[in-house]
Structures
1.
Amino acid sequence: MQICKQAVTNNEFNDSWRHLAIQVIITLSNTEPEATAALMEVLEQRRESRNDSPHVQFVRNYSYKFQQQNLYGFMTSFVGTSFTLTCHKEHELYHAVLTVYGEDTPIHSREELKTNAEHLVLLRYVNDLYGNHYMTRRYQPGSRFEEFKNRIQIGLAEIGNYHPHVAVLQLEKTFRRPALRCEEWPNVGFPLGAVPRYQCKLTIRPPNTNDQYEEIAFAPQKQEAKVAAFTRMAIKLFLAGVIDAYSPLLTEEKECVVLVWPATHFGHLYSSRY
């Protein structure tokens, strides 16, 4: 038993020997009380050694480190909208802006550190959702969730239900090249981080017309600039009456399957809906 404990806790032994020693202790723990105590001691020592390692960091699922991902999942899965988080430097301070599509106004935060600005602007919105019982701490619908969802849907209806999560796909399905063109190139001649470094120019020419619509967006990354340009363009085309509002499938519609097959005796098609 002592040899197995030394093999598990001593880093001079390779991984295969340590795993074998753990298996031996686990097997003995089923019948020997002493082995059970040894197993608990070994596991505690291994946990402490991992905590002391500079290369290991334990993070809870609902930690602020995953705040943006968890909030995005909640908004897209339950509410049917999404948001953008931008941050740039202004007068020695970082200005973070959280834009939730369907809300009336964006949320702002200004801090000396970029990470603090982004964290605080997300925290304000998350705490507002939690405080009003729209969302739980585990990013699930709260007791007043329907009230919040209805408010967001009213705001989305004014912009045709277009938000970054769907704008790119819907425009690419509606318009084909060369009616749709996105050009991206880096801005040069500025200090890194001082100004947005990429811009995307999106041009759409609707068929059977002489009209042309353009939208230019700036962002630190190419993909962010592209998504911003597509989202603004989708809203612009909807307000101009060029495209219809986006109509996502309802839950019950997603679960329906339509089967159509030719009839062998009657000469026409039958369809069934499940």
Note: The first strand starts at residue 83 and ends at 90.
2.
Amino acid sequence: MIVSFVLAAVVLAAGGFLAGRASAPDGDAKAVEDCSKLQRLASDKHREAEALSSLEDQQDEWLDGIRTYGYLVKQNPDCFPAEDRAKAQATLDRYKNLNSG
């Protein structure tokens, strides 16, 4: 009798655990979704900044857009390939030199 209760408790606990795991959000899917959003945002910022690059009176906005793009890429290394991260770092370094010179 006691063995039956213990067995039933184990089965119920295992069932509850498995049901919880099945209904839990998938961390990998969430990370991919977050990266997709960041990549779109970074792409939009880059495109907006590039549209301003040729406008004489919009240079501050252009620099801010490029800097924002650089920080989005740099601060989210899991979402961007190494080449993008290197370009973003080079851009941020150049921006820093423009402001310090």
Note: The chain is about 80% helix and 0% strand.
